[in-house]
Structure formats: C-alpha cells, structure tokens
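Students often ask why we bother predicting the structure of a whole assembly rather than each chain alone. The short answer is interfaces. A chain on its own may look different once its partners are present, and contacts between molecules only exist in the joint model. In this exercise we take two input lines together and write out one structure for the complete complex. Read the inputs first and try to guess which parts will touch.
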Amino acid sequence: MQMPSPNTAILARKAELAAKLSTVLPLDALIQDEAETRAYECDALTAYRCPPMLVVLPRTTQEVSDVLRVCHQMGVPVVPRGAGTSLAGGALPTADSVILGVARMNEVLETDYDNRVIRVQTGRTNLSVSGAVEEEDFFYAPDPSSQLACAIAGNIAMNSGGAHCLKYGVTTNNLMGVTLVMMDGTVVEIGGAHLDAGGLDLLGVICGSEGQLGVVTEATLRILRKPEGARPVLIGYDSNEVAGACVSDIIKAGVLPVAIEFMDRPCIEACEAFAKAGYPMCEALLIVEVEGSEAEIDHQLGLIIEIAKSHNPVELREAQDADEAGRIWLGRKSAFGAMGQINDYMCLDGTIPVTELPYVLRRIGELSKQYGLGVANVFHAGDGNMHPLILFDANKPGDLELCEDMGADILKLCVEVGGCLTGEHGVGVEKRDLMLHQYSPEDLEAQLKVKDVFDPQWLLNPAKVFPLSVTEGRRAVELSK
Amino acid sequence: MKKMMLQPKSETELVEMIAGAGGPLCIQSGGTRGFASDGEVLSTRGLSGVELYEPGALTMVARAGTPVAEIETLLAEQGQRLAFEPMDHRGLLGSDGEPTIGGVFAANVSGPRRIQCGAARDFLLGVRFVDGMGQVVKNGGRVMKNVTGYDLVKLMAGAHGTLGVLSEVSFKVLPMPEAAATVAVVGVDLAVAVQVMSAALGSPFDVTGAAYDPVERRAYVRIEGFAGSVDYRVGRLVADLARFGAVQQVDDSESLWRCIRDVSAFHGNAGDVWRISVKPSDAVELAEQLQAEALQFDWGGGLIWVLVPAGTDLRARIAVPGHATLMRAGAETRGRLGQFQAEPAPLAAISAELRAKFDPRGILNTGLMG
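Now the answer. The structure tokens for the assembled complex follow.
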C-alpha cells in the first residue's frame, strides 16, 4: 500500500511547530519524543505503521481549535485519532503529520432523561456512554465489537454499527448534534437536542467522513430506555443456503429481531475450540435475539422457531436462562479473538443485499480454494454486513499481499452483487484504492467537493478514503514515486 | 399565468434539461409540499416506476417521480410500509397533485413515528441525482449498512433540490405491525402532557407516537407490534400514566394518527402555518412565547405546528434553541421571512459553499434554502 511521501519542508519545521503548539497547550499535552510518538504509529490495522511527527492530546475544544489553527497556518497535515481501534487504518499517521488524539476529552457534559439525550466529549468510550446512564436503565444503542475501547469520536468518524443495529440503527441514526472544529480553528455547533436540525443535513455528511471534514469534540447522542429483557436462540443448519433462506423468511414474516448473527463452519470450529460455548458442529449457525417482556419474547421466539423448523435445522437451542443466553453469545463475541489465536487474519466488512447471501458465500468458498487461504465467515446477517476473516501467516513472505488480493476480490464481489465495500469499519487506507470499483470518478468528485468546502487545503487526514491518484492534485503533500 | 414546465421522461433527458437550462429552475416533483422558487418549473414527475423491491431484504429502489400511493400499495401487498410515516401536505396547504417518493426524500418528510424509528433521511440508502451542471452522481447503494465514502445521501435528503435533482432513490422499508393501539391521557395541560409523553417515550414499551392536542387537552401515546404484545404494553402504560390523569383507550388509532400526521386541525383555517423543531422540554416555555391562534404538538413536544395571523414573523418570538420553517403563507410573507430559518453564520457559509460547488450557476431552487 502506498502512502504519500512526507513533505520535507514540513519535517524541517518540526521544532518551530512544536514551539508554537507549546504556547497553546499545557506541557503534558504535546508529545515530541520519538520513543513516545511511536505509540501512535498505527491503529488496529497493525500491518501498516508510521510514527507521526508530533502528537497532541488536548483536553478542551478551545485547545483543539488552537492546535488546528496553528497547523493550518503552517500547512501541516493533521490526523485525528479517537481510541485508535480502527480496522481500516483511519488513524494511520504520515511522518509529516500531527496526531490529534481526543482520548483525554472523556467527560459527560449533560445527561437529560426527559429529552432522552446525553452530551459527551468524544474521547469517551462507547461502552462508558451506556455506563453513564445505566443507573436509570438507559443505554446508547450502537454497539461495535470494540465498544469497550473505541471512542465516540471514532464511532462518528466511521459511522460505526454493531450487532444490534438491525433494530436501533448505526451511529448516524443516533447522533443528534456535534461541536465540530474546522481545520482553520473555527468552532461550529450543528444540531442539538431537537430533532432534524435546520438547513442542509451537515450532521449527516460529517458522520462517516473519517476525520476529513473536521474534528468532533462534543456530541449529543440519543439514549434509549433498556428493553425489559432480551433472549437469543441458536439455530444450526447443514448448509449456508438454508440458513440464508431462514434469515430472509424471518424478516419477511414481520418479526424484527434486534440481532441476527451468522457463523459458518470454519468460524464455528474456531470459536468452539477457543470459547467452548457448546456450539454444534454444522455448516451454519444463526443467533437470533429478540427483546421485550417475558411473554413478548416467548411469542416472537415462537414465531422464529416455527420458521426455523420449516427449514429443518440440525440444532435449535432456546436460552432457558441468562447463563445459557450468555453461552450462546460467548462464542460469537469471542470470534475475532478465537481466530486471532489460531492465525493471523484480515477482517473484511463488505455489505451485500441479504438475498445474495448464499451466492456470495459460495463464491467466497471458491476464492478461498483458488488463493489457498482459509476464510471464516461471521457477520450480521439481518442487514447483510459480512465479516469474512481471511487467514494468513504474517511471517510467510508474500502471504499478506496474497491475503490483500483475495480480500480485494471478495469486496469487488460484494459490489458486483449490489453491495458495498464497507458496512461499518470505514474506508481508511485499507479500502481506499478500491473506491473506483464502487464509484465512478464523477461520483468521487462529488465527495471531494465536500472536502474542498470544509478543508480547502486538504490538511485533515488527507491520504485516506480516496485513491491517492484521485486526490493528488488537491493534497498539499507530494506523492512518492 | 401558468409557468412553462420541463418534464423529463428519463435521467438522460433530465441531464440535458439541466445542462441546457438558460436560467433558474424551480425543482418540483408532485408539487404538493409548498416549497417553490422562481424560475421555470422542472418536474421529476415523469421519472416514475419502482425498479426493484426485495421484501426479504427490506429494500426498494424507485425513480424519483413515483407516486407515494403506488409505493404504499406495493408495500402493503407484502405487509410492509414506509415506517417513517411521511406526511401528506395537501390538506394543510390546499395543494393538489400527486405526492412522490422523490419529494418525500428531497424534503425529508417524516411523521409521528420519527421519534421511534427515525426520519426519512434515516431510511434513505442510496441516491442518483443530477447536479447543477448536468452531471449524474450516485451515492450510497441499496444495502442497509454502508460507510463507503461520504454520506451524500444524507446531504441530499432535505436539500430540497438545491444541490441536485434526485432521479432515483433506494430506501429501507419495514414490516407492518400486526396491531396498533393508542391511549389518551385526558384533561391535561401542555406542561403535564410533555411529562406524560416524556414518561412514555422513556419507558421500555417502544412507543411509536407521542402527540398532544391542546384543544381536546389530550396527550396521545401509540403502541404497535404483535397483538399480544400491544395489549401487554398498553396495560403497563395505562397503569403507569394514570398518575398524570384519567387514561382512556382511543377507538380509531389509525385515523387519529393520520390526522396528527397531516395536521388536520389546521386544514382550511385562515392564517400562516409554521413548523417548529425544539427540544421537547422547551415546548412549554416556547408555547407561551408564540402567542399563537392554535397549536398542535407531536414528537413528544419536539415538533410544534403553529397557526398565526398572516404575515406574522414568528421567528422573532422564539427564544429557545431550534428552528422554524414557514410552511403555509402568501408569496409576500414567504419572500420577506424566507421559508427556512437562516443558519448561524459559519454554517450558512458552509451551506452556501456546498451549493456553489454542486450548483455553480445557482439555478437549482435558487434562494429557497439561503
């Protein structure tokens, strides 16, 4: 993967930049030491690393504004960073960039149960937002797998989803307002505790813009009252096709579960070996979860089980108590860890129309044979968001490249059947060069125009999302040969 | 005098008409929603037809001029619906014509269920549009989760045609519930009603509507789902809301919410109609500031419909955060006050620059949104 070569003129002014930043930041908020900046050389896409020139860790919106103003004046690229859990390389630095981390901005600013909103600083972790309203039985709905660690700032940047977004939507559907600092230091307020902010839907385009339009320092989020209860059912099938048909029938029947998770045999085997959740060995497992009172859950699960039975399952296990529910989820929730224990893997994130599920799984199987790399599939079946995990050996020369090629083929397949490259992880650097498979140059040009408005000099996270060849004329930095 | 009308029959014709336009265009579809600018009318009504409907994937793709009625009929046959409950503006505005799906999304039209399931913009998955230079752009797709590149889909929803003219939309649909029921807390004033609605919306019972009629002095709460579940939750809510006043079950839930959705209380009344979006708990204070002839409340108090004498500058009376849209008024008032509230300076500058990028000639619904 190519990154722009660092701008030597900027590197030469490192001391000057640090001096200017030190006038607007407390001592401990500016990191210059190379041993310490190394901690910010990558995010969760660890295959690519590059220490930044400097790291700043502001505590207030004013400090963020001051930092951006200084960088803007000097023409220095800035890479915003939440908790650094991006699987797409969204927070990967370049050597001539400043990492702006919001991790120290983690306060709850206002909790308003009457209007069902919470306002937080965006360095706060996803799970701790729910934690802040738990005592009143409320929660924040989007639940990415990394929710223990990931920050709201990154959730907004990538428009993160999660297992329960079939019912509750993704970040953009739960974000009501932001404080946004633009690259020139201007602070703007968009939206708030009222629904449907006036004017153009700027909030909608900022969410998911991967830190390229501004730095979001505060967010107003919708909170919801917790359901009375939730219960999953585990359904096993001897073919992916039948499991896919079952998912489609559940949705058509008018039941709207909060989650429908799908695992194929390689994934079931790995999870079982790792977590010993008691999963049956079969070709495909579904975990379907519904919410409500005991009676409501019984009724919905009754309907789901009836549909499941019409497809002749090899296993059907309804959780009888919280302990059994926990075990049903245990394997699924440890899927990534389980795969990581047996192998290096690359996690993809393409989305497909649910109806294409059987075909896409069959094609992925064929690609797996063709490339000689194993693939385990675990994904959110209700909304077609797939997470194929391609297994490779990082120590074997050429294996990573082979894995990336195969990943690209799978993502192109997702686009071919009417889907997209990424459902919830974001483009980052990982899928940047595939964008022209989904969008025409004219489609991308329309997106670039939006960045031109927010960040005319292309200083914010400039080497992400779009193929470098497409952004070449706009970026301030030079490309390597 | 009736304006000339451009009515493309295909996206290609739409491109030609925009590229070849010699002056401002008034972008419309069914023309039922009361948003108009000066210029030659360009109607997308001729771009009609559902192109794809997959009930098992909860998605539909339709050309922008497809009538909402046609889409709702198709969905009903499969037991599905547009869950965000788009309003029909014809009764309120006295307009005629056929509401279209493109108009719904271009104006981000949502009804009472917006508080539970989201707005039109939350259901819009993908768009094709033609920008002010005649360039076709696509964004998003037809899958429910998509973070590939910038979300221009959201930007187009509610842009009222000022950034481009929608030619095709793909959107999410949801199953129609088996049953619906509404309870009313009767004899309550606005302050109590907001508390009632807040309590209901903050309950675990998945309320899909919370509205207040100050004439009837009734706060309404709607529950939908499987029949047994609706009965259960209605029972729990009746018990819980009894602390605020007498609670009754409403007989015809469906027609009640259609009236709330379409603001039937104001149909045929003289005067201007405004639509205000605020934090629900600000509704009480705001209602006093407004000095209105009549008010209707939806979205737990967060959406306020206001009837005032013609020509009133209602925005001058609002002292809480939020915004007010002028929905029904004479041409002079619309011109003087603007249908949309002016944005704070930095946001207005961003919006103006976005319009300049997508419509450099300034011909798409010029001046409508600023």
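Check your guess against this: Residues 227-241 of chain B form the longest helix (15 residues).
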